[in-house]
Every structure is written in structure tokens, then in C-alpha cells.
Amino acid sequence: MFSKSVGSRVVAVLMVMLLVLSFTGCVVQDKQQPPTQSDGTDTGSDISTLISPTRLKIRAWCPERIDAPINNELLVFKELIERTNIEFDWELAPTASEKEKFNLMMSTGDIPDIVFFGDSSIIPYAEAGLFEPLSGLIEEHAPNLKKYLIDDPAVRRATVFDDGEIYYVVRTSTALVGGGFMIREDWLDKLNLPLPVTLDEWYETMAAFKTGKINDNEVIWPFTGRWDIDDIKHFMGAWGLDFYWFTDNDQVKCGVYEPAAKEAITWIRKLYVDKMLDPDIFVNNASAWEARITNEISGWTRDSRGRADTLTVTLKQVNPDAQFIGIAPPTGPAGSMSFDKGEVTAGRSAAIKKGSKYKVELIKFLDYGYSEEGLNLHNFGIEGVTYSELTDKKVVFTDKIMGPDGVIPGAIMNFGMDRNIPFPYDSRLEMGYRGKGTLSVIEAQMPILRDEFPEGSIKYTDAERDEYNSKWLDMETYITEEVSKFVMGIEPMDKWDEFVQALNRMGIEDVLKIQDTAYKRFLSR
Which of 297, 315, 365, 480 is the most exposed place for a label (fewest CB within 10 A)? Predict the structure, then answer.
């Protein structure tokens, strides 16, 4: 997703540059190579002993969602303490400001022993030598992690740096669909409308929602969102584009810089100007977005796959007929495509502070999450409490997780499952607690998925990063501001060519070359 605080990104980069300079020449990194072949032994872990003979309380930093607090009393976290004897002394940062809090924490030098993080902000700090190299620790103490690194190329590419070292443990996933468009099925039924497919049909259906007296609200904004520019970028798949970076035959391109972008933005602009889009779509926070939906002002959105169910459950409290279902992106000149394929990235990962006295215990703790026993705990919870049956094909959750209308909102996270500690996300979790809405989002997206650009796993040389930051940060701000103006009708579309020429003057071709070179290194890992 895209940060709404461009200034904070600039501050973060300046902090990183200062730290890199201050550590140059005084940090000696352990250049051990990651494991490259299996030794033939059984790497499955049957951990029946504690990691430490005595209870260890270890400092940990972690982002925290306002609707899903983190503490050691959560069912899964409490069980982890009992099984491992590792307890975390949590230092938490609200997800809305996690980047700023993370960079502030790093700038002080007072780094907790383990850092759980949600995006790629950690990469420059790892390269600066502030986190422990993990290859040797994994080789000696983490057989389950070693097996994943050997068996899964995606995990290797996301984990191994260009110097051959590993600095963090990533969460992996067998789920392919990250999110998608979702629409009120009951609104379609009430107006006797089919699911729209083409660009024209999408517009006509939005217009019908707006004028069809769907409920007693005086104003209907058919489509709403909460992700700023990210809310509109998914329309651009109809022209074969992502908004920023995407690949075409292994060549990195920038969506808004492509010739087809002008036609795509012109169509999105029509939606906004004709009041088919929420006028606050670029500024909505999560609460405002959800209010649009629960107050039935908007019946169409795009979000993470599970929201189709949780929004439906919430709506049914006031409207028993409410039902969100998935819908494929609109079909346009390039067909229909979604750049929402799940990827293994630095998100939901963990790094150990350089020189932590607990580094052996912590790598063993992280390895436990990749054992069969740990995997089951993180994904499904505890048998008899959160689930009643678990086979190779499915999980059956108890009524503590599933209500009469589907998954109980927040239940999974509030039991401590599917949280920030990295582990292999299991698709049985997805299928076990997902209802009609989410399963239909997955079904709608699967046939048209394309790989998302692995931005969270791209690593740069020092020279590349310096040039990238010096050019792209200002350019990204310019793109976000100008495209918003085009969409909102503030800037006329006949100035689009001037916008593209400005990108050229700002160095977009140089940034594309850097991205393409770094991406090719990523593919070769």
C-alpha cells in the first residue's frame, strides 16, 4: 500500500543514510553463505523440550493494529510462552505510524533484541550492519527454516541479500490472492443486474446503484476505498498496467509512464467527476471507509480478501439481506488482470539485533514457527479451543471462530493466530474460516492473477539506492499529487503529456534502469 505521509518517507531515508555513513568501516559483517543443499537428514521438527530451561523475557518491537491488540495473554502467545519459555516484553507502535516509530527507534540505537516489522523499511538498516547475520545461526540451529530456504525459490529470493547473507526471517504463504474487488450482491439482485464485466458495464452498474433508489439514503457513492492512490490503481489492469512498478516479459515498467495510462486515467476520472466514486476516496481512513459501507452509502469497494466476509457479517446486523461477493477487475483493451498475487516479501518478518545475547534462543523460536507443531499453532490455534478437526485438506473451526453468518470479526487475530510472528501461512486457514464472500473474491481473481512487482524484496547497491532516493522520492510525490488532480478533474487531461514529459525531466528513465537491474539480480538469487 502507499503511505500517505510522503514527508515521513523522506525523513526515514535521511536517517538511514546517516546511519549507513556512521557505520561504514566499523561494522564487520559475518559473510557466511546461506544453506544451498540438504544434508539428507530429516529436517522436520518435533520440539518437545523448551528452548530455554528458564523463562526468558526478551525485548521485542512490533507494529500493532488498533483493532487487534498484542499482548502475552492472547491464546496463541500464551501457549508459545509455555512451549518455548520465551516471553516477549513488547514495545508496540500503532500501524498508522509504524514507519515513523520504527525509524525513530532505529535512529536512537536502542534496538530491542528482536524486531517484527511489516514492510521493507528494515532493508537499509540490515545492509548497514544493525541486524544479526542469520545464515550461520540457521545452519546450526534452525532445521525447519533451512528446509524452506532450500526447497522454496521464492523464499530464497525474498530472504537472501545480494551479499549472500540473510538478515531476517520472512513469513511465507500458500495463499495466492491478496485481495480484490467486492460488490453488494443483494444490490445487484434488487436492481435485477448481472455482475458487470466490461468497462462500460462497470460504469452502467455504478450509475444504477446511484440512481436506482437502492435504499433510503439521499446520496449514494457507489464505490469507496481507503487506500489513497492504491484504490484506483487496480482499475488500470484493464489496460495491462499497475500504477507504479510492474514487469512485462521480465522488463520493469512504470504504469503511469506507459502510453496506455492516459486512457486509463481518463476513464477513472469520469467515474470521479460523475460521482460514481466516493469524493473522499483519497483521504478516507479505515473508520470513514467502513462507515460508508456499514451505513449503506457505498456498496462496492476493493480490499483484502477477508473483508468480503467481515463486512457482510457487520452489515447483517442491520440488513439481513446484505452480502458482499467478489468480482473480477473490469475487462478493457488488455483484457482483465489483477496484480494482486500474493508474494513472499519483507512484510510480516523478524530480524534479530546485531550482537543480541539471545540470538541463538531467538532463531530457535523463529524456527519453531516453521515446524509442523508451530505452523499449526500460528495458523489454527489450539485443538478443542479454536478448532475441532485438522486434516491434510481442511480445518474445522469451533464456534469461538465461526458464527452463524461466517467468521466472527477479529476472532482469528484476537486469539493470537495469524499475527506478526513469521510462519508459513497455510491455505487451510483461508478455506477453513472464509465464507461465501471471501471464497468468491478468490475465485474471481485466480484466473487473471499476475505477479506483483516484488518491491519489498528488491535490494540495491549503495550507488543505486542513493540515485533512486534522490530521484524517485520527489517523483513519487509528484505522481501522486498530479494523478489525484487529473482524477478529481482539477487538472485537464490535455495536460497529461506535459505530466509525462516532467517525469522524463525528473529522471524516470534512470529510475527504471535501476529497478530493472535490481530486479534481474533478484531473479538470479
Answer: 297
Comparing 6-175+344-381+416-425 with 179-340+436-525, is the CATH topology the same? yes
The CA angle 403-406-407, to the nearest 5 degrees, is: 80
Q: Do 274 and 220 contact (CB within 8 A), yes or no?
A: no
Say how many CA atoms lie within 13 Å of 251 toward its Cβ. Answer: 6
Q: How far apart are CA 369 and CA 392, in angstroms?
A: 18
Grid coordinates standing for 137?
A: 545461526
6-175+344-381+416-425 adopts what CATH topology? D-Maltodextrin-Binding Protein; domain 2 (3.40.190)
| CB-CB contact of 268 with 484 (8 Å) | no
pLDDT digits (tens, 9 = 90+) for 283-335: 999 899 999 999 999 999 999 888 998 899 899 999 999 999 999 999 999 99
Q: At 287, is the secondary structure helix, strand, or coil? A: helix
pLDDT at 174: 63
Do strands 86-94 and 56-64 pair parallel, antiparallel, or not at all (unpaired)? parallel
Angle between helices 6-23 and 98-108 in degrees, nearest 10: 20
Digit-coded pLDDT (tens) for 202-226: 999 999 999 999 999 999 999 999 9
> Is 516 exposed, middle or buried, given 0-12, 13-18 or 19+ CB atoms closer than 10 A?
middle
